[in-house]
């Protein structure tokens, strides 16, 4: 069944006002009175809702649904600003794979320079992509998008996480493949995890030092060299496999 | 260091003849006499090689390298023909993530129809993408590309695998999340694994039946709905995590 995210609280009767949602509901899906859809408000609970007036864009709540597909840990990924539209790709795929947050920061070796105006537009675009992907993958939450203009602001956020992992190619080359699995085995439900990725050129030694000083742990993501936009997908899949599917956990 | 795949055997002195490789070596990278690169022949062994004549396109072998980044199990992914250029995307990412084979078959619910001529062109394109991705991710092998014109030919291949997994959305919905982990814990080095994915519309009940009759096991890939092009990336990451990084294995 079609699912939509709606801002605000779940009242008994609600009126849809968001333009994109309206368009999808009544122009694309052509919903008529009596049709049912799933609405997800900011509380993350899915609710079966019924169209009571397609002309007034009103829906009434039918019942709460128990369905919760969120990862039991909150995973934020942070990419060094990558080239082109790679961040758009990462936002879509990371949303499908369960990310709570999709962040990016200006890394030492980022080729692109995004200033304030560009960043605002980029955030808007990524938010739309994340919402669309969250609806399609039937998430209970839309990931939070945050692009940092200054690296110091990003660094200041590291203390808010229970675990910070640095995806570091050199860790993989050094044969250190068990670090991530070792850490994921002791992660607890509800904990906040951050994965930091470099841009195409990688993470600079100075950045590694700063991330490690803030408590970050360098981990390898398998022995093969992954592109900057592929590494977050591996990390999220590994977390899902470790905490959602692994019978020994 | 730049890596190239070369067809044939690793003789002491070789002449590069492949046009794309020549172009990259001598026009893009502008290699000169004495420069070193890594060459990988069909035996999958990486060799340090040195340019002895850039005008004659000759290189000599310097030494074998021990570096082997192949997955300890051989994983082939098989997608129901998807729309647009999704298979190109899957080929690139699955190569990075260690796939041995990248296959596709005409599924009941595939929207696209690819005939013989189109398939030949598609295979050529995918082979180039896989080779480029294998070079970039420093693989020892280029994944084998195979597109089946008839589903019966694909079905006939299932017996050649030690394990066949069917990525089935309904398994995830039914809360069956441990099946894949349970199976991956008993997989042995060198075994051949096949993952079957549906196209956008999913796998038809008739196909599920045929795959299961051929020994396929339905597995979920986490509780979230993954797009057809994202599911193979999850599967490959999970295999890597289970067999390469999980300390309990």
TrEMBL record, chains A, B:
It comes from the Bacteria. SUPFAM superfamilies: alpha/beta knot (SSF75217), PUA domain-like (SSF88697). GO terms for cellular component: cytoplasm. Its main location: cytoplasm. Its EC number is 2.1.1.193. Signal peptide: none annotated. It holds the Pfam family Methyltrans_RNA. GO terms for molecular function: rRNA (uridine-N3-)-methyltransferase activity. One of its GO terms (biological process) is rRNA base methylation. Residues 70-239 form the Ribosomal RNA small subunit methyltransferase E methyltransferase domain. Coiled coil: none annotated. The keyword Ribosomal protein does not apply. It is found in: Cytoplasm. Belongs to the RNA methyltransferase RsmE family. This is Ribosomal RNA small subunit methyltransferase E. It comes from Streptococcus minor.
């Amino acid at each position: 069944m079609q699912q939509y995210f709606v801002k605000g609280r779940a009242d008994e009767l609600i009126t849809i006002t968001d333009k994109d949602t309206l368009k999808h509901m009544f122009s694309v899906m052509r919903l008529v009175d009596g049709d049912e859809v799933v609405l997800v408000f900011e509380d993350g609970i899915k609710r079966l809702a019924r169209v009571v007036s397609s002309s007034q864009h009103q829906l009434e709540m039918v019942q709460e649904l128990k369905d919760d597909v969120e990862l039991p840990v909150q995973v934020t990924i942070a990419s060094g600003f990558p080239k082109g539209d790679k961040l758009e790709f990462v936002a879509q795929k990371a949303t499908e794979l369960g990310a709570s947050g999709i962040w990016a920061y200006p890394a030492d070796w980022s080729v692109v320079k995004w200033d304030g105006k560009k960043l605002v537009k980029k955030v808007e675009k990524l938010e739309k992509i994340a919402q669309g992907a969250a609806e399609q993958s039937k998430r209970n939450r839309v990931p939070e998008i945050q692009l940092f203009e200054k690296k110091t602001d990003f660094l200041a956020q590291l203390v808010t996480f229970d675990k910070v992992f640095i995806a570091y190619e050199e860790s993989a080359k050094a044969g250190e493949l068990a670090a991530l699995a070792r850490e994921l085995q002791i992660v607890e439900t509800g904990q906040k995890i951050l994965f930091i990725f470099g841009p195409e050129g990688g993470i600079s030694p100075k950045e590694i030092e700063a991330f490690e000083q803030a408590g970050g742990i360098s981990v390898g993501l398998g022995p093969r060299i992954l592109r900057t936009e592929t590494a977050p997908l591996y990390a999220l899949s590994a977390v899902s496999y470790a905490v959602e599917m692994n019978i020994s956990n």
